[in-house]
Amino acid sequence: MSLEVRDLVVEIDGRRVVDGISFDVADGARVGLIGESGSGKSLTALAILGLLPDGATASGSVRWDGRELIGLPDRALAELRGDEIGIVFQEPRTALNPIRTVGRQIAESARIHEGLGRRAAAERAVAEAERVRLPDPAQIVRRYPHQLSGGQRQRVAIAMALACRPRLLIADEPTTALDVTIQAEVLDLLQGLVERDGMSLVFITHDLAVLSQVATDAVVLEDGRVVEQGPLTRLLTAPASPITQGLLRDATATVWKPGGTR
């Protein structure tokens, strides 16, 4: 088992916002964390990577290949991030550095974790830009984030997360800010890359229709607690909790139809 989360608790200024969450992500598994806004999905992801905001604390257990991550020093966590575990954030406009070219940002983790020189890093950036299907990779890596479209910025964020071929990718609502057409392209890209590299995936979303395209199992959250979890096909056909039933009603109002899971 690659990732084991047990009784994870996150408190912000003394208020419990994640309350005893437990789930597993096996090698090659694709697991969704789904719930409405404020359910604790994103905070769970940030706690796993040691990226909680100031004033927030985590307790419980998060084990990666048997190694406890809760309480691990920042330097040790930084060595894991980007190398063994990658993350794609919801809004690339804020995740990307506006004063650095996207090529430098794509290559940064490879320079840090693999010790690549400037020329090799530049070549890696072009290769990764091509891998995420950015147009004219050799030229686009010279641009700055504000010169790209929203969909292109999200592809850059994906390239950054995957440059070192991590074993686990955490994708935090990576398609929320995109229109339907671009959203479908990014989902297709993510699914293809995850399958091709044999990565595990934790995909965070509030949209069951989106989750049905990329995950095989789901953990449903409400108010910081797990209310239901299991194979996505079961949750889609026989949801047990009211929150899952509500998410299913919302999903069937979209272009997705039940039975559309991959």
UniProtKB/TrEMBL annotation:
Annotated ranges, domain ABC transporter: 3-248
Top-level taxonomic group: Bacteria
Membrane topology qualifier: Peripheral membrane protein
Alphabetical list of InterPro entries matching this protein: AAA+_ATPase (IPR003593), ABC_Ni/Peptide_Import (IPR050388), ABC_transporter-like_ATP-bd (IPR003439), ABC_transporter-like_CS (IPR017871), P-loop_NTPase (IPR027417)
Pfam families in the cross-refs: ABC_tran
Major location (coarse): membrane
Swiss-Prot/TrEMBL keywords: ATP-binding, Cell membrane, Membrane, Nucleotide-binding, Transport
Compartments, as annotated in UniProt: Cell membrane
Molecular function via GO: ATP binding
Family assignment from sequence similarity: Belongs to the ABC transporter superfamily.
Protein name: ABC transporter ATP-binding protein
Species: Microbacterium flavum
